[in-house]
Amino acid sequence: MYNSFNTNIAASGIVGELQNRSTHLLAIKADVQAKAGLINHLIAKLQQITFADVDQVLTFVDWLDQQLSTLLAREKSRCTPGHLNSLLTQISKYPPNDDPTLTSCEAILTKTSALQHKLEKSMSRLVNLRSLAMPSYKELRIPTDWMLDSGIASKMRLASLKLAKVYVKRALKELDRETGGEALLAQTVHFAYRVHQFAGGLDCEAMRLFEDLTKRPHKASSPLSFLKMN
Predict the structure, then answer these.
(1) Which InterPro entries does the record associate with it (predicted)?
(2) Is residue 191 a part of any domain in this protein?
(3) pLDDT tens per residue, range 40-97
(4) Virtual CA dihedral for 111, 113, 118, 120, nearest 10 degrees?
């Protein structure tokens, strides 16, 4: 009886939505009618404005956000470039010298891996946004250059290379102390492969560091053959 009652309520709500008489839908309509003047004013502003770069978009969206507290465009226009720039800034200052939580090898490797994971997830969201929203952005004259591979994506790949160097340098330090072994070596090579795939290759410094791994006494065979082949 309980499940049937809940099912009937849900079905009633769906019917109400379809018949344009649900409480939620009526409340939205009333709110839109009450704010019609403001909404039309904001629409006109959005249609008239021309942006020179994405920073102007962020400033404009901040203004819109003050005018209209619930603005979907904020998540699409501000969240992505703002979030990515914040993440890139964090990585550019990583690792901080005054962070007491990053004293051990395990802590640094875990944190570095977590930052790489954020880069990978953010890149995935950027690619999805680029495929879904770019036509709308162009129609609204919102700059899209930052979405391209030559834009913020290239900075993300460089940031990934920095994380790789931090990771390997710390692993090498641990191996020099002879407190690491096969497991640490394999873990480091695995991280190298992640970055290699994400960044589309390694720069000279990263390759030199990875080559240094092969000189460690813990290797059974060259663990970087996949890098040399690529």
Answers:
(1) CHUP1/IPGA1-like
(2) yes
(3) 877 788 778 888 887 888 788 777 777 765 434 444 444 467 788 889 999 999 998 8
(4) 170
Q: Where are the alpha helices (DSSP H) in the chain?
A: 2-18, 23-34, 36-48, 54-67, 72-73, 80-92, 105-139, 154-176, 182-199, 204-213, 225-229
DSSP SS3 for 230: coil
DSSP code of residue 94: P
Residue 195's contacts (CB-CB under 8 Å, 6 or more residues apart) are 116, 160, 161, 163, 164, 202, 206
Angle between helices 154-176 and 105-139 (to 10 degrees): 170
Residue-range definition of the domain harbouring residue 129: 101-215
The confidence band for 101, taking pLDDT boundaries of 50, 70 and 90, is: confident
Same domain, 124 and 197: yes
Residue 131 is encoded by which pair of tokens? 């495929």
142-156 tens-digit pLDDT: 788 888 888 899 999
